[in-house]
Amino acid sequence: MAFAATKREWMELYTFFSLLADGYVYGGTPDIKQNERLKIPVAMMVREEHDGTRRYVIEKDEVHIVGEKIDKRVLRDDFRTVAGLILREVLACRENDVVSPDSVEAFLDDVLIYDLAAKTDDRTDFSVAFYDENAPLTGFCVRSRLGIMEPLLDGGRAANFKFEQTGVRFSAPTVNKINAQGGEDDVLERMFMIERLGGILRYNDVADKIFRSNLSMIDLHMGRLLGEMTRLMWLDGITKVSDLTAAIKKLNPLKIKDELINKHGFYEYKMKEFLLALANGMRPAKLYNGTDSAIAGFMFVTTEGKVLCYQRAFRQTFADFLFYNTRFERASTEKDKYGYLERENGAYYFKLNLKIGLLKR
């Protein structure tokens, strides 16, 4: 019986099957092209299933699958065929939910795969042993432009920044009138109204103490930098991280010397370090001590279905890829509780939320 799954779930399985069929993966360039000089052999893959951990050892013509309830060999060409069928269905479907072709469902039953998206505690989708099956495992997450991509940072209320409202003292009715502003750009309308009435929003702090401490591990002023970039995103409509960084260099909110900005690339460096930390598992509400998580990189699927590898082992390329292919996004004001004037200890504060996602194209 056919079943439906999201494109994101199908593309995780597509990536997994493609690597098993090919037995290699190409490294990606910062501009999401195949690095022809970096063809990395894949010797074994490990994936969590309903019955525990499965090992998929890539042999000459077959994949040897070993798990608690399975020990069998499957032709690599079979994985290639099924990966192609999945890609065809995903490309042909305009909806986010894609119905499985009968032949794909039969193959999944044959290899005892019941979870299209692996359920792991460390947030990886699968692990890979490169070059040799006894090599250390590298944990990966799949990100695909053919489906809805999970944000790089979707921290909820913990990722809010506080701006103190100064300049003039608003009465309670005025505050209520500001907060009542609605519409598609309600947050921006409130910010403009505060300015029109003589108010000034000055960066104050990171709202959550854990996220504040996490950011301080990268730089003691990282909270201010990200807060000002978030404000700039709302006011000027700039969303790409690389463009926002170029704009913030001109504003120089941290008041650092020109030499540090231009010769050392201070703002670019700090943003790349922050993005790498996010990609490697930093979360706003969880203590971060700089230790790398199980996530060591992304398997990134292009709009044509090519799988590209970005990993911690090629740090600069990974950092550049993130820097040029991420953007600030608008989160839900209701869910993340920001975009309103709120009274706290006799003063009014306005919160903005930080959400970062990968570019769709």
Properties at a glance:
361 residues; alpha+beta; 6-stranded mixed β-barrel; 4-stranded antiparallel beta sheet
Average pLDDT, rounded to a whole number, is: 94
Order of the strands making up the biggest sheet: 2-3-8-9-13-14
Beta-strand portion reads 25-35%
Taken in chain order, the helices and strands follow as EHEEEEEHEHEEEEHHEHHHHHEEHEHEEE
- Kindly state the number of beta strands: 18
> Could you estimate the helical fraction of the residues in percent?
25-40%
**Can you summarize the main beta sheet?**
6 strands, mixed, barrel
How far is the N terminus from the C terminus?
35 Å
Summing up helix and strand content along with how strands pair, one would put the structural category as alpha+beta
Quaternary structure type: single chain
Unreliable residue stretches: none
* Number of H- or I-type helical stretches: 12
Shape: elongated
Q: How big is the Rg?
A: 23 Å
